[in-house]
Amino acid sequence: MDEPALIYDLHCHSTCSDGILSPSELVSRAKSKGVDVLALTDHDSIAGLAEARVAAQACGLDLINGIEFSCQWGSRGVHVVGLGLNVDSPELLAVIEGQAQRRAERNEVIAKKLAKAGFPGALEGVKKLATEAAIGRPHFAQFLVDQGHVKSSNQAFKKYLGAGKIGDVKNIWPDLDEVIDWIHAGGGQAVLAHPNKYKLTRTKLRALCADFAEYGGVAIEVVSGKQAPGVAEDMVRIASEFGLLASCGSDFHQPDPWQELGSSSRLPPGSDPVWKDWNIQRPTVNVELGV
Ligand code: AMP
Ligand code: MN
Ligand code: MN
Ligand code: MN
After folding, report:
1. What is the pLDDT of residue 207?
2. Ligand found nearest the CA of 66
3. Considering every ligand atom, which ligand is closest to the CA of 12?
4. Same domain, 124 and 195
5. For residue 186, which phi and psi values (nearest 5 degrees)?
6. pLDDT at residue 47, as a whole number
7. Which of 35, 119, 150, 218 is deepest in the core (most CB within 10 A)?
8. How far is the C-alpha of 1 from the C-alpha of 283, rounded, in Å?
């Protein structure tokens, strides 16, 4: 009988960025949802990987060292996942520090804009909320909810933080090619995150994938979080057009409304998976000893 396929979830977040579970809680939850291979991909941070690795070894789950870098393609914000990173790479540590500084500067600008709009104290507020995390707009959203200025995080994005709103501070991130180079310097593979979520026309999406492939990106997420029927198949067509492999991930941040860990793992037939050369084996069970 064929072995059941391994379950891959190559995109998720912990409290080291904007997720609500600690790295070890995240690993335990992934294991309980049937995930065999998990990449922790916090926004611009690898701070959670050491704790996640200890938890993964304890429960028998394969952990891939990951990150989700913020960058720009022209004037558009784009996310690139790095997989299989060498977390001791000095180059990688240096660029992550650079991203932290960019975030710190952006946070000040966002807080000033929110103060002007009548919501003072946001910078202090998000620092309290995030403690060790890479602070991002979700923390500002939480601050606005906690202060009673909006009913939900979703409303905070709609009114103040989402695309085109006052808290959507642009042009602070490095260019796409630079971030792909960083991932290569850190020994990893670059994967274009959630290509279907950028609201690009077909022409623009193809141009993005063409540039991504030209700069040395290897895969796109053909399955990412919740997506409509047919999208994955469509993304596979685009991937193969540009010689890119297929990746998948839940982009889990917290239970509901985000997709559950492990439930965005089915690649459509004909996909060429990003893990094809990883040589990951299902942990063998010693039948004689019954362990
Ligand atoms: P940042 O890294 O600061 O640019 O924040 C981006 C993050 O905000 C994403 O990774 C999501 O977790 C979250 N986000 C973006 N748009 C929304 C939205 N409309 N509602 C809730 N969360 C969102
Ligand atoms: Mn996020
Ligand atoms: Mn993203
Ligand atoms: Mn993400």
Report:
1. 98
2. 4
3. 4
4. no
5. -85, 10
6. 97
7. 35
8. 17
167 lines ligand 1 (CB under 6 A): no
Please tell me the distance between residue 161's alpha carbon and the centre of ligand 1 in angstroms.
8
Domain count, the chain: 2
Q: What is the whole-number distance in angstroms between the Cα of residue 283 and the centre of ligand 2? A: 31
Residue closest via CA to ligand 1's atom 17 equals 157
- Bridge partners for 145 per DSSP: none
Q: In what order do the strands lie in the sheet with 62-73?
A: 8-9, 37-40, 62-73, 76-83, 189-192, 219-224, 245-249
Check if 152 has its Cβ closer than 6 Å to any atom of ligand 1: no
User: Which structure tokens are listed for 30?
Assistant: 């992934």
Q: What is the pLDDT of residue 281?
A: 81
Tell whether 287 is covered by a domain. Answer: no
Residue 116's domain spans which residues? 100-161
Query: What does R_g of the chain's alpha carbons equal in angstroms?
Result: 19
CB of 11 within 6 A of ligand 1: the answer is no
For the Cβ of 224 lying below 6 angstroms from any atom of ligand 1, the answer is: no
Residue 255 domain flag: no
Considering 230, 249, 268, which residue would you say is the last residue of a domain?
249
The mean pLDDT values, 10 residues at a time, for the chain of 291 residues are: 87 97 98 98 98 98 98 96 98 98 97 97 95 92 97 97 94 96 98 97 98 98 97 98 98 93 95 95 59 51
